[in-house]
Amino acid sequence: MKRLLDMTSGASLPVERIGGKALSLFRLQQNGFTVPETLVVITDVYDHFVDATGLRERILLELHRKDFDQMRWEEIWDASLRIRSLFLSASIPETLRREILDTTLERFGSTALVVRSSAPGEDAASASFAGLHETVVNVSGEEPLLDAVRKVWASLWSDASLLYRQELGLDPERSAMAVVIQPMTAGRCSGVVFTRNPADSREAVVEAVHGLNQGLVDGAVEPDRWILDRRSKTIVTYREPKRERISIPGPQGVSLADLSGDRVEQAPLEPNEVHAVFDMALAAESLFGGPQDVEWTWVEDRLTVLQCRPVTTATATATDQRGWYLSLHRSYENLVVLRKEIEENHIPAMEQAAREMGAVALNEISDDALADEIRRRRDVNDHWVQVYWSEFIPFAHGIRLFGQVYNDAVRPEDPFEFVELLSHAPLQSLDRNRRLEAMAERVRFDPNLRERLEQRKFPSEDHPFMQEITEFLKRFGDLSCSAGETVQCAQGPGALIHIVLEWAAQPEVSRPLAGSRNSQARIRRYLDAFGEERRQWAERLLELARASYRLRDDDNIFLGRIEARLAEAEQEALRRLAEGGASSEEEVRRRLKEVMDEKPDAGTGAGGRQEAGAERRSYRARQLVGQPAGPGLARGSARVVKRPEELLDMQRGEVLVVDAVDPNMTFVVPMASAIVERRGGMLIHGAIIAREYGLACVTGVPDATDLIRTGDEVTVDGYLGIVTLQ
User: Fold this and answer.
1) pTM for this predicted structure
2) I need a labelling partner for 584 at 20 to 30 A (CA). Which of 491, 538, 558, 659 fits?
3) How far is CA 301 from CA 34, 133, 406, 493, in A?
4) What is the CATH number for 226?
């Protein structure tokens, strides 16, 4: 049986062999719609490839490092990136290689191509996979074509796809991927049409841009938008954007260019063309028996359907997080806009909010005013937590995007080699440690000061040391407690002075590593992989990724300052309630108690993955497997930390074992010889800080804080992701 099929021979095959996208295209073509000529690489080819190369077993190994239900999205990101690297480094068997190349050349010649996914079940009415799998546009040449096929296959294992399948209860191990190959169709304008508006079932939506559709799909080009009444087909509203850019074919792939000429002032579609697009989509809806999302382009006078899938948004449930998973993936252009919003608006606003709350003398206001202040601070905190999930977390995709581009261009043996180009950044938590070390240095060389501090006879407020302590508390909190997952609090100088004394009792704490000569060589190798036209873009992407890497750590600090101010107000309320009788008005006292009783339970946040509690084991494992997150090999006595106050017991040279290193714990990291975390991922705070200090780090170790005990001798292999108990 042939493994690359055209329109006429493919339509009779089941969806399990050709995928939902190809089947839809075949049916559209059979019913008179204009669609591009199409070849389909059936799922049998995918199965043959992963079996012949040993990839099937290696994929399963990645997915079974840890119970999927307990994996955070950072861990799933890491696994999917490793799987993608495996696909791109594996050679397609020669017989398959020749069949793909020869059949494609015979059908399309040297025409530029588009390579799309077509996974079985991806366009079912209850499980539309729009945007999850890869599409590679403007592909020319043999090796780029084979690369594009492998990228589409690998996208079956993208983090978004894995999360989505789990949400739907689909079995990833039984998944396969067909591939659609089409000639590049560069129309004068392109767009999408929803025959039923997800926001209002009585309406339809038509969106259009000049040039290629890629800019609209990526969010880089704002479309013209028409809302139509489904019954009368009349245009109800029209939204005209500021037309500035257009997606056009580049040397390879797609480029953005400035829109020029008359098209800046002209809508991509005339009113009669809007109706023609809608009529075409209604015909597709009639064919498939339900509302459709149709991607189209207008080539000369022909309206061409590029792909068609069911509209499922209207049936999503309140707990359905599929849209949030997709929002984590952003285009380069979208990330540039997001960075500007975060750096120029969100961070200054967060710092201003923290300063304003810090200026309120809580001990001087009435119980009634304190209750109002707590509610206000909760509202402020809730707002910034939402912003954190909706904008700060998606901005972390800048790291992933760079890693993917780096791996595609350089093809390193280590799929996380790119992290070395991002490390050694000016992180807020490292600045905090430098300030701690400066205070510790003052204590080391002033025996009188050290003696007074040990006796808790603190100097006056105008003493230089106490001024440094006061400034530190205002900026970072006292590091001795945690009000939530990543926050700091401020209860006075005592706990912070204790930490400084602990630092002063040690030799000078190790400093973060500076950028290495090796990383400079890798930067040159990365940039040299791009031609002159793309080199500047590659440089900008690296700079964006560094900002993303820095903010992935710093955002916790900024959010922590907001949460610290909330913790202060709640602690003041608890103090007053504990004292009792301070208020002469019982009604006010009752109100203060009520506002404390309203305190919500801690959750996972929007889009969060629920953390499963680990049961204590009755057996002792000798070797624990996690995710390699910081290269290095270290051995030492374990220090298991389950509560913030246990951090003060940390001794120099111990292996820090913890659920997760939150930013409040960073002060103990320079004393550790290695880090082991139950939570996983290359982008969690502990992994980032470990790499900055050059420490071996293994993350995502199931039940790490239960299976390892304080005092155990452990060896941490940050290259392989293995922790061995002696």
Assistant:
1) 0.75
2) 491
3) 11, 30, 40, 75
4) 3.30.470.20
